[in-house]
Design a protein that fits this description.
The complex is a heterodimer of chains A (about 230) and B (about 240).
Chain A (H helix, E strand, L loop, with lengths): L7 H19 L1 H20 L7 H29 L3 H7 L4 H30 L8 H26 L5 H28 L4 H29 L3
Helix pairs in contact in A: 1-5, 2-3, 2-5, 3-5, 3-6, 3-7, 5-6, 5-8, 6-7, 6-8, 7-8
Chain B lengths: L11 H4 L6 H19 L14 H28 L2 H33 L7 H22 L3 H29 L18 H38 L1
The chains are: A mainly alpha (about 230), B mainly alpha (about 240).
Chain lengths: ~230, ~240
């Protein structure tokens, strides 16, 4: 790379690697977010009478609510970490396209959030006694699509929220209305899959989710440089 | 402005236009006039009785909220394109006015819903969409209040408004598929409006009065933003 600026994707991948390396060496954020998710799953179980509402009916809702809030906790850390010693300034003066900062952050966040799902989904299956069976692959797809949408939105809003007063409060306030279509579609799709219904019944919901992911992944990548000063 | 010796005539507050706003008075009188016509000179609906009359406030308020929201989203796009602070002030004003009208829709809706549906609130598609519009507008205003630096505030809020404009169709689609119960449109539909002539006149007058009020309110709020920015430059 002597004297030549790296391309968009190369730069993005370096930034993602940097974020993941920090996370792997400290493990602070992931552990606390994972424990938060487990705690929420357990508390939700006691919030309903399991003899009145079948755990099978409860599980998708609990999973998506827990996952949404746990993901938000993780996303806040994404640009929050750059605030220390104004590390973000070093990223901004680097000779890379500014969209690559967003993409790199988003890729690292996606890996973070998907790892969180790998903890949360088996925990729901265990605590709520779910028969996963054949639906596991399709459910994994739903989870991945939901994670992409949340990360696209959450990464951008995390970049904005850290520069405001009351950042911890503002990120959920900005993000949650945007998570509504994600939560509705993925909860509807996973309810059908968990009930053993054919994949074709979940597909119309997934189509909306895929369209949402494409629109917001593109829109947020385009929008990120606009949040920065000229 | 530096120093304290500046002559009084160059002081922004001395230049400021008078606060009294004739258009505003006119708009308020227009809305009050419509209220009188609705209460006294418009027949009651046969099955719903007087409860139906809230329709003349509820729907025009919703149409005014849409007007302000569309103006706010367009002005945000203009700001991201041209970086003109007037576009930012207009977006700010339209956002606040949209919040007021969306709140009016959310208050008048349940007042009608209780006697007619038997419930203050249902999770019908339109109700959910309006509620989320209200949330998005509220978070827009909170974001504006949480950023101190003017150009950063303008950039952030414009980005949020443009993304929110992309979000609305998705919320609409997903809550519509979730369930719907709301009365279908009876004026703005492909066929002719199925409203008796007297009621249609009241409705049309009401929409015009509300839209005029909405525009005048935005204008008043815009003038306030100009004065505030001038005062901020002065200190």
């Amino acid at each position: 790379m002597l004297g030549r600026a790296p391309g968009l994707w190369t730069a993005a991948w370096s930034i993602a690697q940097k974020d993941l390396a920090i996370e792997l060496r400290t493990r602070s954020a992931f552990l606390s977010v994972a424990v938060f998710a487990l705690l929420a799953l357990v508390i939700f179980f006691f919030a309903w009478d399991p003899t009145a509402v079948s755990p099978l009916d409860l599980a998708p809702g609990v999973l998506w609510v827990t996952f949404t809030f746990a993901a938000l906790l993780g996303l806040h850390r994404s640009f929050g970490a750059e605030l220390q010693d104004r590390a973000i300034d070093a990223l901004l003066v680097a000779p890379v396209h500014r969209a690559s900062i967003y993409i790199g952050k988003a890729v690292a966040n996606l890996i973070f959030v998907f790892a969180l799902l790998l903890v949360a989904v088996p925990a729901v299956a265990l605590f709520y006694n779910l028969p996963f069976g054949d639906a596991i692959v399709a459910l994994g797809l739903v989870a991945l699509l939901a994670a992409i949408g949340m990360v696209a939105i959450g990464t951008l809003f995390s970049a904005m929220a850290v520069n405001t007063r009351m950042a911890e409060l503002l990120l959920p306030m900005l993000s949650l209305p945007f998570f509504v279509p994600i939560v509705i579609t993925s909860a509807q799709a996973s309810t059908r899959l968990l009930a053993g219904r054919p994949f074709a019944e979940a597909w119309p919901w997934l189509k909306i989710l895929i369209a949402f992911d494409i629109v917001f992944a593109v829109a947020c990548t385009v929008a990120y440089p606009y949040t920065l000063e000229e | 402005m530096t120093g304290t010796a500046a002559p009084l005539s160059s002081h922004p507050r001395a230049r400021a236009k008078p606060v009294f706003d004739w258009l505003f008075v006119l708009a308020v009188l227009g809305v009050l006039g419509v209220f009188v016509r609705v209460a006294l000179f418009t027949p009651s609906e046969l099955t719903q009785g007087d409860a139906q009359k809230i329709y003349y406030i509820h729907v025009p308020a919703a149409l005014s909220a849409y007007l302000a929201l569309i103006a706010g989203a367009l002005m945000s796009m203009v700001y991201l394109w041209l970086h003109d602070e007037r576009a930012d002030r207009l977006a700010e004003s339209a956002g606040e006015v949209a919040f007021v009208f969306t709140s009016a829709v959310l208050i008048t809706g349940p007042l009608w819903g209780k006697p007619i549906w038997g419930a203050w609130w249902t999770w019908d598609a339109r109700l959910s969409l309006t509620l989320f519009l209200w949330f998005v507008t509220a978070s827009y205003l909170v974001l504006r209040s949480a950023v101190d630096e003017p150009s950063m505030r303008a950039r952030y809020s414009a980005v949020l408004a443009v993304l929110a404009a992309l979000l609305i169709p998705f919320i609409h689609l997903s809550v519509y598929l979730f369930r719907t119960l709301h009365p279908m449109p009876i004026v703005l539909k492909p066929e002719r409006p199925s409203l008796p002539a007297e009621m249609l006149t009241t409705f049309t007058l009401s929409v015009l009065a509300f839209w005029f009020f909405c525009i005048v309110l935005t204008r008043a709020r815009y003038r306030l933003a100009v004065l505030r920015d001038e005062a901020a430059e002065d200190t």
